[in-house]
Amino acid sequence: MIYADYRYYKDFFKGKLIPAEDFDHAALLATQYIDNVTFGRIGSDVTDTVKNACCAAAEIYYKCDMSDAALEAAGKSAEKTGDYSVTYAKSDFSYSSRDKQLSKTVKLWLGSTGLMYRGIG
Predict the structure, then answer these.
(1) Contact 17, 58 (CB under 8 A)
(2) How far apart, in whole angstroms, are the C-alpha atoms of residue 98 and residue 106?
(3) CA nearest to 104, candidates 21, 8, 37
(4) Is 112 exposed, middle or buried (0-12, 13-18, 19+ CB in 10 A)?
(5) How far is it, in rounded angstroms, from Cα 94 to Cα 113?
């Protein structure tokens, strides 16, 4: 189950970044990330806070996908024939940066809910 749908993203979260056709994929990744950091505690109790965390994380996944697509489209940025040298375009968005942003964003929304607590409650 995806924690937020596109209608929620547009109408309540007021998201503008992700187009409708790309939202479900990004939200699915975001939902899985949230399940991992909350140890599967959410279940069917999907609050607005959880939906907002899903939307915010989905935007990060979408940005990363867009960066990868731009990098792939850019391909080589330079090539030299003598002593063969190839330079590839660089992405502005790294996976370690994505993971840090995901952690920070989800903690912003869910940090005070107890859902991310690692101990026994």
Answers:
(1) no
(2) 12
(3) 37
(4) exposed
(5) 29
Structure tokens at 102: 């995901």
Give the H or E element holding residue 86: strand 85-88
Q: For residue 108, what are its two tokens?
A: 């912003």
pLDDT one-digit tens code per residue, 17-64: 999 999 999 999 999 999 999 999 998 989 999 999 999 999 999 998
Alpha-carbon torsion, ordered 55, 57, 62, 67, to 10 deg: 150
The single-letter code of the amino acid at 82 is: G
Confirm whether pTM is higher than 0.70. Answer: yes
